[in-house]
Every structure is written in structure tokens, then in C-alpha cells.
Specification:
The chain is an alpha+beta fold and about 190 residues long. About 30% of the residues lie in helices and about 30% in strands. Strand 3 (about 25-30) and strand 4 form a beta hairpin.
């Protein structure tokens, strides 16, 4: 009952915004009223989200043959190496144990919702909180949250359990898988 292809247009009020999300950007059009329209296309997805900020700093990495795009706010640039390693660990484990990630792209973007909120998953994109408590390197809060959100790509995204009626399936399998990855890698 999920559509296999989604195409969405987003109108952004400031041309300077960096925009990315589920799918691949197929066009960007600057409008006369200082807005721009961005069109995304994604196949075999059941949900769509995007993010936009004029402050994003873009970092890219090729991990397991997937273009991973990190959209970091300036205050979190120092987390890039930790997030890259956690992404590598999660993708390697999930590709080996649950089947290959079916997309060529994954966006990991900072989001700001309160102090601890902001971690979320949708196909081809996860968000990470901006203001996690400062933790020493041996406390792996960032890694655990990021790995958890990436693992959702399989249980929420690929398996596509019904989160509205059976939320325990996605969260249960994701939490179990996150724990296995954390024990194995850290």
C-alpha cells in the first residue's frame, strides 16, 4: 500500500539555504521572489522528509559504496569523525547481517528540537540532535543515537513495519540491533 515512487517539490524562502532529504535532487529553480524550488525523486520509499538551513556545513564520505552526506551545524563540526566512524560501523554491520542498503545515498543532518530531541529516521535520511550533552570520548551517546537511527533504515524503512499499530516491531528490532553493534564495535 506504499507508493513506490515519490516526487516532491519544496519551496524554500531563501536561496542560500542548503537543502537535502529523501531521494535525489533532480532540479533546483530560483524564483523571482527570492525563493527556490527544489524537486526530489526517490524510488521504493514509503515516506519523505527534507531538511534546510543556511548554516549547514556539508561533509561527504563514501561508506560501503553509499554517498553519505553530513549536514552539520557549525557547533557540531568537531563530531564529524565520530559520526563518520559510527555510520561506517552501522552500515557495515547492517549490510552484512540484514541485507544490502538499497539506496545510493544517506543524509545525516543536524536538527534542532529542544535539548535532547531531534533524532529521527526516514528513508535515506536521519537527523541528529544539535545539543546533546557534552560527553567524553569513552561515553558514546552520539554513536549510539546515530547507529540507532541508521538501523531504522532497515527495520522501519526496508522491512516497513506498521509503526502506527505495531511500533514495538521497529523499535524492538532496532534497539536490539543497536545493542549488538555497540557491543561488537565499542
Amino acid at each position: 500500500h506504499y507508493p513506490l515512487r515519490r516526487q516532491r517539490q519544496m519551496c524554500i524562502r531563501d536561496r542560500k539555504y542548503i537543502v537535502d532529504g529523501t531521494g535525489h535532487i533532480v532540479s533546483e529553480k530560483e524564483n523571482p521572489d527570492s525563493t527556490k524550488t527544489v524537486t526530489f525523486k526517490a524510488e521504493k520509499v514509503h515516506d519523505f522528509a527534507f531538511c534546510a538551513s543556511p548554516y549547514f556545513q556539508i561533509r561527504k564520505a563514501d561508506i560501503e559504496g553509499i554517498e553519505v552526506i553530513f549536514l552539520l551545524l557549525p557547533r557540531n563540526l568537531y563530531k564529524y569523525q565520530r559520526w563518520t566512524k559510527a555510520t561506517e560501523v552501522a552500515l557495515r554491520y547492517c549490510n552484512s547481517n540484514f541485507g544490502k542498503y538499497p539506496y545510493s545515498k544517506l543524509v545525516i543532518a543536524n536538527s534542532y528540537i529542544g535539548i535532547m530531541g531531534g533524532a529521527m529516521e526516514c528513508p535515506m535520511m536521519v537527523t541528529m540532535p544539535t545539543r546533546l550533552p557534552l560527553t567524553p570520548k569513552n561515553i558514546r551517546l552520539d554513536e549510539e543515537i546515530l547507529i540507532h537511527e541508521i538501523v531504522h533504515q532497515w527495520w522501519y524503512g526496508i522491512v516497513a513495519s506498521n509503526e502506527a499499530f505495531e511500533a514495538w516491531l521497529d523499535e524492538g528490532f532496532t534497539t536490539y540491533s543497536t545493542r549488538k553493534i555497540m557491543e561488537k564495535e565499542y
